[in-house]
Here is the input.
Amino acid sequence: MGHGARPGVQGPLSRAGRLLSALDGIGPEALRVGELLGRVAKGEIAEVILALPATVDGQTTAHYLADRLAASGVAVTSLARGVPVGGDLDWLDDGTIAQALKARRPT
Here is the structure.
């Protein structure tokens, strides 16, 4: 499992390695989450930030990980999705606009 610092994030980075994919025959056993679950159980982690693609496989993996982490009490969050900084609305697809609308907040 890879670890490393990222701008704006404190603490180590853990990679699950793969995404769940029913079509490709990739199930939960292919994910490398044992170390993450162990660190969460030891109280070493306060928040797990899921940085997964906005695809069916990415969302499936996010739901699986959130379910596995639910009983631990650790905060599970996902990266924001939607309109990129400097993005032109004329070039965005409906899915991106829908995600941006769901993630809107007061200014």
